[in-house]
UniProtKB/TrEMBL annotation:
<protein>
    <recommendedName>
        <fullName>DUF4238 domain-containing protein</fullName>
    </recommendedName>
</protein>
<dbReference type="InterPro" id="IPR025332">
    <property type="entry name" value="DUF4238"/>
</dbReference>
<dbReference type="Pfam" id="PF14022">
    <property type="entry name" value="DUF4238"/>
</dbReference>
Length: 343
């Protein structure tokens, strides 16, 4: 049960790349008691996790299933792909997809992301509720004693557990994974004198991933940096930067939330001076803001649907609200300019 409660947001296979200390340990940098950064040596399985991270008051089993049935296969396939990337092998389409899925997961599986995705789901329920209220009021069965507000509250109570499915859908978003798979990939080896660091916000990426200059950078070990770009020219320019290792370390450390990792303690001062200094809004927070901004447009579309369409389908209000909240937004009857602004 103790192992089942440990939900790793930084997978063990990933942190093991930095486990060069005696006993297969990494160096974890954190601020446990104030502004001073403290290093400690820890096994990769003993860090990068939160007990019951995906748990909710509604369904304890769902949290364990999320770790066992979703993240474990994602991480296992990514571990194989990473080994081949570092070795210089050409990845198959399946391996590229596995690695891209893992990369996306790093953008939205951190401890501060989980409450945001739960909030996102609640926001969707509240957004669609006015559109379904009129259908419920028009077709409410005589034997139904609950008000629409009561039904909405019941759906809201299950939002934390259902949010796990929303998180899965974001991580496996075909459009985003396809964008990453179509990018040019490279693994740049760096000298041991310029040890790469990682953190609980390890990835550096452009806010838009489908533009010509878009790119993605992720340390995958103390001497290896994964780079993805939309064209070979950009890929070569990034790989040829004279201070690439320092720049990658600076981004990984400055955007860290609570933890930074290395294979030694020699960059303690570097971490002390930069840890958490430049926390830009991450993917989940940007998605939540985007969803709120687009809510009026979607609600307008929903309210424009004739009431007869709702009644013909004999929609159950509670089930309809649950289905609507299963994804961030509907894809039908929505302006394409809104649909296509996912990233």
């Amino acid at each position: 049960m103790q192992a089942a409660n440990k939900h790793h947001y930084l997978p063990v296979f990933y942190l093991k790349q930095w486990a060069l200390q005696p006993g297969g340990r990494v160096v974890e940098f954190s601020r446990p008691f104030g502004p001073e950064v403290k290093p400690r040596r820890v096994h990769p399985s003993g860090t990068g996790y939160v007990n019951r991270l995906y748990a909710s008051e509604v369904a304890e089993v769902g949290a364990w299933e999320m770790e066992r049935d979703f993240f474990s296969p994602v991480d296992s396939r990514a571990a194989d792909a990473m080994r081949r990337l570092i070795s210089g092998a050409v990845l198959s389409d399946a391996e590229r997809q596995a690695w891209a899925t893992f990369v996306v997961s790093l953008l939205c599986r951190m401890p501060e992301d989980v409450p945001l995705v739960k909030e996102m789901r609640k926001q969707v329920i509240l957004m669609f509720a006015p559109a379904f209220r009129r259908a419920y009021d028009a077709s409410r069965p005589a034997e139904e004693t609950r008000t629409f507000d009561q039904l909405t509250s019941e759906v809201m109570e299950t939002a934390p557990d259902r949010a796990l499915r929303t998180l899965e859908k974001i991580i496996t978003n075909e459009r985003l994974i396809d964008i990453l798979c179509r990018m040019k990939w490279a693994v740049t080896p760096l000298s041991s004198g310029n040890e790469l660091l990682t953190s609980d916000r390890p990835a550096t990426y452009t806010k838009v991933l489908n533009a010509d200059e878009s790119h993605f950078v992720l340390p995958i070990g103390p001497e290896h940096l994964f780079i993805a770009a939309n064209n070979s020219g950009m890929l070569k320019r990034i790989a040829a930067m004279p201070k690439l290792g320092t720049m990658a370390n600076q981004k990984a450390v400055e955007q860290a939330s609570k933890l930074v990792y290395g294979s030694s303690e020699r960059q303690l001062r570097f971490v002390q001076n930069r840890m958490g200094r430049d926390k830009e809004p991450q993917l989940m927070r940007r998605l939540l803001a985007l969803q709120a901004a687009q809510a009026p447009a979607y609600l307008e579309v929903m309210e424009s649907i004739p009431l007869d369409s709702f009644l013909e389908d004999q929609l159950d209000a509670k089930a309809a609200l649950s289905r609507s909240a299963a994804s961030s937004f509907p894809t039908k009857a929505c302006p394409s300019s809104v649909r296509n602004s996912w990233v």
